[in-house]
Write a structure and sequence with these properties.
The protein contains twelve helices and 18 strands. It has 354 residues and is of the alpha/beta class.
């Protein structure tokens, strides 16, 4: 039996770096040698046991923001061959339930995701259905390719938000929120405002996508500041990209009458926001949610990266060996100057980029 190195989350707050069997593929799957896997903000929640459905799946190899090179294909696979660079749609759906047949696969009754509910890419190898794999063009460099999955999630949120030309957009959170802001700008939003409490992140947001930034450590009443910027009206759209009941409550207050809150940040299962029901009726405020990218979102993400409409590389703070995953995860939580950390199973020493 061929073995590989992997980081296994055996229980909340306990990663174990160990040898495990290389995944066995069926006739319709491919085996992928992992090149890079990004650490997602939700990986912190998974690590700490914040999501009940994920805790039930432990022990598990996590890691879902990945790409790699095809090592082996199942006998029924004809669209992909060994040696291809691929990114993987991590969403696994049944295709036959009520929601799948309605064209809403993200709501599938048997919905699961690679690296969240089934073994993922914090390992040397990962397996995936061939139909979920997308060829990564040569024009996309190795580091940018790692952003295909998180970019699909932002694209899905952008589509659900459906921002109009000239609309005002506020984004709470300057991590992946910087990419949300960039997509809003590509859609013609004006102004695009990013809110965060870390100066380096705000500088990055200003350089990459934001017309304005608000540092909540210097301007605690961010709602009042938004109202000032919009002459007391509020913004057309707010994207919450933090995952906190407090910021969700602030976001709802920031949108104008008839405006929309796009819910993106994932809160823990026991975190609830207080929103005034009357505002849904009398002010016609709206909320839309989006949990992931799926299907065509992957082709869109690849095109945006291939043709340089999106350049995510400035977000990368460091690259670490697989063995340092747990350490890096804690560093990301404690050091907010770090934005995106990539894990590379092929290196033995970390690479600092900031």
């Amino acid at each position: 039996m061929k073995m590989m190195k992997a980081m296994v989350l055996e229980e909340p707050k306990k990663f174990v770096y160990k040898d495990v069997p290389v995944p066995t593929i069926n006739t319709d799957e491919v085996l992928i040698k992992v090149k890079f896997c990004g650490i997602c903000g939700s990986d912190w929640g998974s690590y700490n046991g914040m999501y009940e459905d994920e805790v039930a799946c432990l022990p598990l190899i996590t890691g879902h923001e990945f790409w790699g090179v095809v090592e082996k294909v199942g006998e029924n696979v004809t669209s992909i061959k060994a040696g291809d660079r691929v990114a993987v749609d991590i969403c696994l759906t049944c295709g036959t339930c009520y929601y799948c047949r309605r064209g809403e696969p993200l709501l599938c009754e048997e919905f699961s995701q690679i690296g969240i509910h089934v073994d993922g890419a914090f390992a040397e190898y990962v397996k995936a259905p061939a139909n979920n794999c997308y060829i990564v063009p040569d024009e996309i460099d190795d580091h940018s390719a790692t952003f295909i999955e998180p970019l699909t999630a932002c694209i899905n949120a952008s589509r659900k938000m459906n921002c109009e030309l000239g609309a005002s957009v506020a984004v709470i959170g300057a991590g992946l929120g910087i990419i949300h802001a960039l997509l809003a700008k590509l859609r013609g939003a004006a102004p695009v405002i990013v809110i965060d409490g870390q100066q380096k992140r705000l500088e990055m947001a200003k350089n990459m996508s934001a017309d304005m930034v608000i540092d909540f450590t210097k301007t605690p009443d961010t709602v009042a500041e938004i109202m000032k910027i919009t002459n007391g009206v509020g913004v057309d759209y707010v994207i919450e990209a933090v995952g906190s009941s407090k910021t969700y409550e602030q976001a709802f207050q920031m949108i104008r009458r008839g405006g929309k809150l796009e819910a993106f940040g994932i809160c823990s299962d026991d975190d609830f926001a207080k929103l005034p029901p009357a505002a849904f009726v009398l002010q016609e405020k709206k909320i839309a949610g989006s949990c992931a990218g799926i299907g065509h979102d992957w082709e869109v993400a690849i095109s945006l990266l291939q043709y340089k409409r999106v350049d995510p590389c400035p977000l990368i703070s460091m690259i670490v060996p697989l063995s340092e995953l747990e350490e890096a995860l804690n560093e990301l939580h404690d050091n907010k100057d770090l934005v995106k950390v990539l894990v590379c199973p092929e290196i033995t020493e970390r690479i600092l980029l900031i």
